[in-house]
């Protein structure tokens, strides 16, 4: 009797179960990493939460939806950042489940599993796992938008227009790249016979009205915002440098998807003994419109985003690599043919698991061992709770008032705003970024000014001293990292601005 691995049989018999198991295990892996090795939020998440506390329609961080959702998740978790980590993983799960349903509609349920598993390796390397923000929230919205776009164009399901309009409006409230992504859908619809037939009905008009209503408040804020400016186009002399920059961005996308060609190469007949019969994953024939849909949305967002980012000189790809590469796994499966032989299944499983777990393992190794190699700081090793508790209690003891605002170095100040009292963040170096607080209001309510101490006296940096000329620095407070290693303690200089009338 020929032996077939249990995983292959489950892919054939219970494809949806395999997808849920893989997606949930990845989410649990990242949540364990956050609980065990994160003492402060990654990236700019603390600043995002500080902005979310204010519930502004628009800020310089972009559209408001991810900022609001982060604050809601933070409050729902009882003032713990773990709630935001769970929200990030829920977005990850929603992305893969939407992709599975889209893939199932194009290539059938069995090969849809392969599309999801391949895409998991891409997103593991190319997009953040726990740093919730526009790049994370845009992924499930874009995947759902593609699913309902296919239902509208390829399957002619008119009832999908309402969901499509809601997702398009929410995407506009999530990322500035939404306009570019929606234009790609319009281009595909106009360039195909099925899409043009769909656009002749009244449903697109009603969908456009829903999208306009959802995006109207943020659009009004953009028109009124004094800080909003269109990016400048490069000069002719800069085009060569911008082209090289675009090539580097494209190389980064290719590197992020490197696990797919590696798995494809390992699945070739080069590693199979003669006469060995590999199990087959079957699919019904893919219709031409479905093939064109998959190839277009696998290639056009990536190349378009690279072109725009290179032309404007942006540091990262417009929309994020996790968005523009979300169809890459399905495109490879479509190109592989109706019959996909799973050769050396055990080796493929091992390589796939290593690719998915490698970023999380890299985070753990960096936290545990990087401090012993030098003085490089790990931002997630900063003791956020101890920092916020100390300055909140110190201000209350000195002034008999609750801490209402924090200024100084943005990273440290953002960590203090995570305290249960949720003081306001004041970016004194760029006060326009925090319109809910200004210098006069900060002086009236009082607050704490913090900075990295460079000496034992806690002398403020010249720029902070110029903006707060009357402050008297306190003795710097030292905090331990999660792993101190060979780096020194985190020394925070601080000063209290007493409330007026106290």
TrEMBL record:
Kindly list the residue ranges recorded as spanning the membrane. 17-38, 82-100, 112-130, 170-193, 205-223, 243-272, 293-312, 318-339, 351-372
Alphabetical GO CC annotations of the entry are:
plasma membrane
> Which Pfam families does the entry link to?
PMT_2
Subcellular location(s) per record: Cell membrane
**Domain (Glycosyltransferase RgtA/B/C/D-like) ranges:** 63-221
What GO molecular functions are on record for this protein? pentosyltransferase activity
Sorted alphabetically, the Gene Ontology BP terms of this entry are:
lipopolysaccharide biosynthetic process
Which of UniProt's keywords are assigned here?
Answer: Cell membrane, Glycosyltransferase, Membrane, Transferase, Transmembrane, Transmembrane helix
**Record's bilayer topology term:** Multi-pass membrane protein
Record keyword Cytoplasm present = no
Among PANTHER family, the record links this protein to:
BLL5595 PROTEIN, MANNOSYLTRANSFERASE YKCB-RELATED
Q: What is this protein called?
A: Glycosyltransferase RgtA/B/C/D-like domain-containing protein
Q: What is the lineage of its organism?
A: Bacteria, Pseudomonadati, Pseudomonadota, Alphaproteobacteria, Hyphomicrobiales
């Amino acid at each position: 009797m020929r032996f077939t691995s249990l995983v292959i049989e489950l892919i054939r018999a219970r494809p949806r179960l395999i997808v849920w198991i893989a997606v949930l295990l990845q989410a649990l892996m990242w949540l364990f990493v956050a609980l065990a090795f994160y003492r402060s939020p990654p990236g700019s998440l603390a600043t995002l939460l500080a902005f979310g506390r204010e519930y502004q329609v628009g800020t310089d961080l972009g559209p408001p939806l991810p900022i609001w959702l982060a604050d809601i998740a933070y409050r729902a978790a009882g003032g713990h950042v773990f709630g935001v980590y769970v929200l990030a993983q829920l977005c990850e799960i929603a992305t893969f489940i939407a992709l599975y349903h889209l893939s199932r509609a194009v290539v059938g349920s069995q090969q849809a599993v392969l599309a999801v598993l391949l895409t998991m390796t891409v997103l593991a390397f190319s997009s953040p796992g726990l740093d919730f923000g526009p790049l994370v929230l845009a992924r499930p919205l874009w995947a759902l938008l593609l699913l309902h776009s296919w239902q509208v164009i390829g399957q002619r399901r008119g009832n999908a227009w309402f969901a499509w309009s809601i997702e398009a409006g929410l995407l506009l409230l999530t990322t500035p790249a939404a306009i570019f992504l929606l234009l790609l859908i319009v281009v595909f619809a106009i360039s195909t016979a099925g899409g043009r037939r769909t656009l002749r009905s009244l449903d697109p008009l009603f969908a456009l009205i829903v999208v306009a209503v959802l995006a109207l408040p943020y659009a009004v804020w953009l028109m009124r915002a004094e800080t909003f400016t269109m990016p400048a186009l490069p000069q002719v002399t800069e085009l060569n440098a911008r082209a090289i920059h675009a090539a580097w961005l494209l190389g980064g996308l290719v590197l992020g998807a490197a696990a797919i060609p590696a798995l494809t190469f390992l699945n070739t007949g080069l590693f199979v003994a003669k006469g060995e019969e590999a199990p087959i994953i079957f699919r019904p024939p893919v219709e031409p419109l479905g093939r064109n849909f998959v190839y277009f949305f696998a290639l056009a967002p990536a190349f378009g985003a690279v072109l725009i980012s290179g032309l404007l000189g942006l540091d990262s790809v417009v929309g994020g690599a996790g968005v523009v590469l979300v169809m890459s796994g399905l495109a490879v499966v479509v190109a592989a043919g109706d019959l996909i032989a799973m050769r050396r299944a055990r080796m493929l499983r091992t390589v796939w698991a290593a690719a998915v777990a490698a970023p999380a393992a890299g985070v753990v190794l960096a936290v545990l061992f990087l401090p012993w190699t030098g003085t490089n700081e790990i931002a997630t090793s900063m003791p956020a709770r101890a920092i916020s508790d100390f300055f909140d209690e110190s201000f209350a003891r000195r002034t008999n008032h609750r801490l209402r605002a924090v200024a100084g170095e943005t990273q440290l100040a953002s960590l203090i705003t995570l305290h249960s009292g949720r003081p306001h963040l004041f970016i004194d170096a760029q006060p326009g970024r925090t319109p809910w607080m200004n210098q006069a209001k900060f002086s009236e309510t009082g607050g704490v000014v913090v900075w990295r101490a460079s000496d034992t006296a806690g002398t403020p940096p010249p720029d902070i001293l110029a903006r707060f000329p009357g402050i008297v620095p306190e003795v710097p407070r030292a905090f331990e990292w999660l792993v101190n290693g060979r780096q020194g303690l985190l020394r925070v200089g601080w000063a209290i601005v007493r409330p007026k009338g106290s």
